[in-house]
Amino acid sequence: MPSHTSARDISAIGKYLVEFEQYLLVPEVTYPEEIYIRLDNSGGKTEIRVTKTEDPPLRTILGDTYSTGQVNFMTSSKAYAIFPLPTFLQYKTYALNVLDDACWSTLAKYTQRGWRTQDVLWEEEESPYHPIRKLRRIGDHSTWRIPLDMTNMEKCSMPNEVFEKAEFGMVLSSDGHPDTELNYTIEMEIFSAFTLRYQYMFTANDDDFWNNMVEDRTDRLTNIERMKLDEKRRFSFDNAALHAIRSSPVPIKSSDVPNTWTYYDDELPKWYEAWKEKQRKKSLGIDKFKDSDLWRVD
Q1: Distance spanning both ends of the chain, measured CA to CA
Q2: In what order do the strands lie in the sheet with 144-147?
Q3: CA 5, 6, 10, 12 torsion: positive or negative?
Q4: Backbone torsions φ then ψ of 55, nearest 5 degrees
Q5: Lower Cβ count inside 10 Å, N or C end of the chain?
Q6: How far apart are CA 9 and CA 76, in angstroms?
Q7: Phi, psi (deg, nearest 5) at residue 264
Q8: Do the Cβ atoms of 77 and 150 come closer than 8 Å?
Q9: In degrees rounded to 5, what are phi and psi of residue 181?
Q10: Coil vs helix vs strand at 125
Q11: How many angstroms separate the Cα of 148 from the Cα of each of 5, 75, 138, 145, 165?
């Protein structure tokens, strides 16, 4: 059973498995994985692989997996199957990323468990309703979601709505042999900002929204927030600093956030609707205001 977590949470997971679930850490395994095993009375073995990730774990799960049949995971409150139609109803699994020597033993295990491995969809299988299509969202209608019993459990700090709106794209690709070596590649981008509490994953379909509208607004809001800080705590604000912010897996440490700091995640849905309306009017050649009318002083 694989488990993906951010690097900062790894020690807590390992401690829990050893102290409360009677697992043993396999000492020979090195970064970025830790393997824990537990033997039962009949001689069977349960194995948990904990993988450390610098990016959000979801990006690693989607981007570093061999086949669609493996993209099933749990968060603190729900279980998710991203490709349930082929995986659980058709018992098929399709190639994600280039299939190299390291993947064949894994795919062989899936064959022993009843799955057939296919590189990509046959032409007659393609459909806008099939889970394998160009644009997907974690919480869309193609995903199976099973709520978990949260009795006496602490809720995750990130709302499900943020996680389930994460978008990813699926691209048909080949490794130089388009007739014999086809596979799908999952693509996504990550946006971070000091004035957003969470990270957001998106595709090229919404690139203009994130890298123009959201980037511009969060940069300006970040400047306002930093100027509210005491001068000694005020960080630099130039292009290099902004690039570092967006490249950082953790936009800002919670312990460093003053009580005057404001986040704008709740504004994103309104910004997105405004952006879509702007795109619609742009396509029709309609401008809501002319600059001369908007700024005219009567």
Answers
A1: 69
A2: 72-74, 78-81, 144-147
A3: negative
A4: -80, 170
A5: C
A6: 13
A7: -125, 25
A8: yes
A9: -125, 80
A10: helix
A11: 19, 9, 17, 10, 19
- Look up residue 69 and give its two tokens: 């049949």
Q: Which residue has the tokens 């979801």?
A: 58
- Cβ proximity of 249 and 181 under 8 Å: no
Residue whose tokens read 């607004």: 217
Beta pairing partners, 202: 189
**242 by DSSP, 3-state: which?**
helix
Residue 113, CB-side half-sphere exposure with 13 Å CA sphere: 14
Q: Residue 111: exposed, middle, or buried by beta-carbon count in 10 A (0-12, 13-18, 19+)? A: exposed
> Could you read off the pLDDT of 217-271 as tens digits, one per residue?
999 998 898 888 887 777 666 656 655 555 554 445 555 667 888 999 999 999 9
Pairing of strands 144-147, 167-174: unpaired
Q: Do residues 68 and 93 lie in contact, with contact meaning Cβ atoms separated by under 8 Å? A: yes
Two structure tokens written together for 139: 């919480």
- 8-state DSSP, 83: S
Tell me the pLDDT band of 176, cut-offs 50, 70 and 90.
Answer: low
